[in-house]
Amino acid sequence: MTSIIRDQIPWFIAGASIIIMFGDYILDPMAVIATALRNWAVIVAAFAMGLAMVSMTIFHFRAISQRQSGWYYSICTLAGMLAMIIVAFMPPMTGSAQFNWLYKWVNTVSGQTTYAALAFWISAAAYRTLRVRSFEATLMVVAAMICMFANAPLSALLGPWKPAASWFLAVPSTGAYRGIVITSACGMIALGLRVLLGRLRPWE
Amino acid sequence: MIRSGNVLDFVVMIGLMIAIYLMMSRAEKKMPKLRRIPALDALEEAVGRAAETGRPILFTQGSGGTGTLSHPEEGPQIMSGLNVLSHLAALAANLGPRIICCVGQSDSLIPTTEIVREAYIAQGMPEAFREDDIRFLGSGNAYAFAAVDIIRTEEVAAAFFIGPFYNESLTFVFHSDDVGAMKIGGTAFTHQMPFFAAVCDYFMIGEEIYAAGAYLSGEAEELGSVVGEDFAKGFSIILIILAVAAASFGLSGFLNFMRI
After folding, report:
1. What is the DSSP letter of B186?
2. Which of A164, B79, B126, B185 is the most exposed place for a label (fewest CB within 10 A)?
3. Are residues A77 and A104 in the same domain?
């Protein structure tokens, strides 16, 4: 019985979902079932979000009650979560001015601030990568320099970098990316088949 | 009845190739020979290093939001990451280091928790499983910086980043580098590949993460599907070369046949 619940039923659900969604891609009559399946997925995901919130709340409550390291941050997390929930339920729900204010001036701004920190990491990554150690590395350094010069305002005085940079981005770079995308698509098909045939069961 | 204009024939052809190899491997029980994937070979080394230093290992699958498991691009990557996690958790249960999972997608919290729990139970170490170490951190930048805090405060010995990553990828690898962690990355998102390739110790490119489950299982049937996948890729390359040649020499018959 346990094997049926833990193994066979999830496999059947996964296999049926793959067949229905693939069928929707080519057969018109499958559209109704596929739409229903998509709606179910949204509902399941919404419940998953609820469960995740419960899990997060329990974790932070425990951190506060046991005075774990950084417990005061847990207070901020729970207070922020509670504030957003309360404001979201105030009429007219998520359209309220308070909700939008919190979202725009707290969430978006802090997100942008952290996103901006990426500039330092990208510079450090470029420093590590752009070291001339081999012929291939030299090619990459030359390509990277041309692309960087094309985007730097003052470098326009030194020469016409734009056409060369556009060629690098449109030909070798796009070609390599498309190769990766095609092979990834083959990998995805193989993964789907392994799930469909019951050879791969990530839920086990 | 049947919609036109979709690439059904191509998908079916590739699917058949993979399925045939999978079946052949099942019938012959012959172990196909695959090239090594260094990132997957390094799993044991990373967990061993964590066990020696007494520091935990960190596993995360990137940020997301609601419904990532049903997302066409993110879902398969998350499933592949969970396959790696299953092996990683088994290794951690055997060798001893704590495994901390930072979850950025609400719908993968339960699968992640259960996979780690099952791995500990399967290794006969259910008491070593700590549910508090499977942490949902929200999504987006909140998730990214909560994970960074865990990387730094726990001083992880090894960090695994396998799944659909966005701008958080670089932040993670640099902070992991700061605490001296071994970094293993893998994603099928082309916009994050250069960053992982630049900074990670080991990196899985695109399709390698999809093959990870089969590679780690070591079973002939699953490996057969990877060999079939390689034939499908070879077939795609031949088609691309033929289409380029046909377009260059104006062979409209072939292009019409290929619906290009």
Report:
1. E
2. B126
3. no
Say whether A52 and B109 touch across the interface (CB within 8 A).
yes
- Measured from the Cβ of residue A89, the count of other Cβ atoms closer than 10 Å reads 11
Using an 8 Å Cβ cutoff, are B28 and A47 in contact? Answer: no
Between chain A and chain B, the number of residue pairs with CB atoms below 8 A apart is 178
- Class of B38-217 in CATH: alpha beta
Nearest CA in chain B to A80: B142
Q: Given an 8 Å threshold on Cβ–Cβ distance, is A191 in contact with B15? A: no
What is the count of structural domains for chain A?
Answer: 3
Residues of chain A with pLDDT under 50: none
Domain enclosing residue A77, as ranges: 1-88
Whether residue A192 and residue B144 make contact (CB cut-off 8 A), yes or no, is no
Interface ipTM above 0.90: no
Q: State pLDDT tens for residues A120-170.
A: 888 887 777 777 777 877 888 888 888 888 888 777 777 778 888 888 889
Partner-chain contact B15 A193, CB within 8 Å:
yes
Domain boundaries, chain B: 7-31+221-258, 38-217
Cβ neighbours for B3, distance < 8 A, ≥ 6 positions apart: A25, A26, A27, A28
Residue A204 covered by a domain: no
